[in-house]
Amino acid sequence: MNKTCITRKGVVLSPSDVHDRWIDLISAAGLNVFALHGDINEIIRFVNSDYGSSFLGTLKKRGVGIEYEIHAMSRLLPRSEFEKHPNWFRVDDKGVRTSDGNLCSSSKEAMEVVCSNALTLAEALPPTTNRYYFWADDTKSWCRCKKCASLSASDQNLIVMNAIAKELRRKRPDAILAYLAYLNTLDPPVMIKPEEGIFLEFAPIQRRFDAALNDRTVPENTRHVEKLKRLIDVFGIKDAQALEYWLDSSFFSKYTKPAKRVPFDRELLVSDFLFYKQIGIASITTFGVYLDDAYFSQYGTKEVLEYGLTLKEY
Prior knowledge:
alpha/beta, 8-stranded parallel barrel, TIM Barrel
């Protein structure tokens, strides 16, 4: 039997979700990781505001780790550079350079800019846990130029993450950086190997949430489990994290308000926790976007408490 204990128990919100009720709720639910997600400028404004500083300061005093999980590539390589430096950016399937997402992973100059800006962003948003999350652009493709064409999206993503991790660790030797396995990077990289300081973050957004992840009668979930096992073969299990959607009202509301109540199922949650624990993942978190003050006023806090208290059992 795998003796892994789930030691990191978290929730990921956007700044607009944050309100006073969350402070005591995080404590009551036994959560020990709090992450911010969303627009980077909005996150920086929140962190530097009197309210944000007080909110995060209170969590820190209570022993809660603070992290920032962000789609950062457009920040690390500003789209405004496209006119002057089109070769920094990706080639699409039609052979045209475009600034609409990510970058050319074969461009040395682009990589230098990305790494430099990653260090700046790390200074602006320093986690308390040494864990960094500078994800690729959401839902965007990678480069198909002649140099990149043989590399999958996963390989190109890992090239960039390896480079960022190397620079981060020059300044912060204990820093580790997530490789986000999500959508087009869910397949394991084949050509590129993770370097020191890279950990796996598994975000199965296309699974079915009306069945346990390891329910073998559900093809979508079976496919995710098979890919997770292959990802672990590449990245190892050390520091690996599951980023789930159990409390993500924004996901279940199709990213449109008014927010819908999350379809919480404790039995399914237990099955998922046991699966992650048995496979050796000790860090589990979930998005909780749209769980703002209005959501709690309408639906209450039961699901958050059950998530945390159930997770505490594992």
